[in-house]
Design goal:
With 279 residues, the protein is mostly helical. 79% of the residues lie in helices and 2% in strands. It has a two-stranded antiparallel sheet.
Length: 279
C-alpha cells in the first residue's frame, strides 16, 4: 500500500480498481517517497564534503529507491485504466485462460516475499547483535549506517526509528519492483502461450478443411440428369471470364469506330466553313 497506492487491487472486477489522490494509501505512499528523497539529498551533501565509494553507494541506493517510488506512483495512477483495457481485451478475444495461473502467481509471490523478509531479517538481526556488543544497539547501528544524518543532528531515538523504517522500505522497494516485473512477464508469457495454442488449433482446422476440399472429389447431381463437379464449375467460370473479355474488347472496338466517325464529321464541317469563306 505504501509503494503502490491502488484501491481494490484484489477485486476480480476491473471497474472496482481505482486510484484516488484523497485516499489513505495515497497519503501513506508519500512517506517512502519523501523519505528516500531526503535521504538521497543528505547522502549527496555528505558526498560533496568528501568523495568516497561508500558515500557513492549511499547516493545510488536511496536515489534508485526514490526513482522507483516515483515510477510506482505514476504506474498506480494509470493502473485502473490499464486493468480495464486488459479485461476488455480478454473479453473480446475470449481465448481462454491458463490453468491455475492465479494459484501459481500467489505461491510464487508468497515464496519470494518470505525469502526477502527472512534475508533482510537475518541481516538486520546480525547487525543489531554486533552493535549491541558495543553498548546501545540502536545508537551504534544508526550512527554507523546513517552518518549522513547523525553527523548533522544529534542522535534522537524516534528519528532513528523513522530512518530505519525508511531504509527498510527502500530495501523492499527493489524486491517489489522485481516481483512486479517477474509476475507481469510470467502472466503475459502464459497468456500468449494460451493464445498461440488456440490459434494453432484454429489454423489446423483450416488446413484440414483445405486438404479436404483439394483432395476429396465433391460432386452433386440435379435429379440424376447431369453431374456437377469441381471441374464443371471451373469450366463454367472459364467460359464466363472468356465471354466477359470478348465483350470488353468488342465494346472498346465500337467506341473507337464511333470516335473515328465523329472526327470525320467534324473535319467535313470545318472544310465547308473554309470553302464558304473562300467564295
Amino acid at each position: 500500500m505504501a509503494l503502490f497506492p491502488v484501491q481494490g487491487i484484489e477485486q476480480l472486477d476491473a471497474e472496482k480498481i481505482k486510484f484516488s489522490s484523497k485516499s489513505l494509501p495515497n497519503f501513506i505512499s508519500f512517506y517512502p517517497y519523501f523519505g528516500t528523497l531526503v535521504m538521497m539529498l543528505l547522502s549527496l551533501a555528505w558526498f560533496i564534503k568528501k568523495a568516497s565509494l561508500l558515500r557513492t553507494l549511499r547516493i545510488i541506493f536511496f536515489g534508485t529507491s526514490w526513482i522507483s517510488c516515483a515510477l510506482l506512483r505514476e504506474l498506480a495512477v494509470h493502473w485502473p485504466q490499464l486493468c480495464r483495457v486488459w479485461a476488455k481485451c480478454e473479453q473480446t478475444t475470449n481465448l481462454g485462460y491458463p490453468t491455475n495461473l492465479t494459484l501459481k502467481c500467489h505461491c510464487f509471490i508468497f515464496i519470494y516475499i518470505m525469502t526477502a523478509v527472512c534475508e533482510h531479517g537475518l541481516a538486520l538481526s546480525n547487525a543489531f547483535s554486533e552493535a549491541a556488543a558495543c553498548g546501545d544497539a540502536l545508537r551504534n547501528l544508526c550512527t554507523h549506517w546513517f552518518p549522513q544524518v547523525f553527523n548533522l543532528v544529534p542522535f534522537y531515538r524516534p528519528l532513528a526509528i523513522i530512518i530505519m523504517t525508511i531504509n527498510t522500505i527502500a530495501t523492499f522497494t527493489f524486491n517489489f519492483v522485481d516481483l512486479l516485473l517477474i509476475t507481469t512477464g510470467y502472466i503475459l508469457a502464459n497468456l500468449l502461450t494460451q493464445y498461440n495454442r488456440v490459434l494453432e488449433e484454429d489454423s489446423h482446422k483450416v488446413e484440414r478443411f483445405l486438404l479436404h476440399v483439394n483432395n476429396q472429389s465433391s460432386e452433386f447431381s440435379a435429379f440424376g440428369f447431369f453431374t456437377v463437379t469441381r471441374t464443371t464449375i471451373i469450366t463454367i467460370m472459364s467460359i464466363v471470364l472468356s465471354y466477359e473479355a470478348i465483350m470488353h474488347q468488342f465494346k472498346t472496338l465500337m467506341i473507337d469506330v464511333e470516335d473515328g466517325q465523329a472526327l470525320k464529321r467534324n473535319a467535313s464541317i470545318d472544310c465547308s466553313k473554309y470553302l464558304q469563306l473562300g467564295d
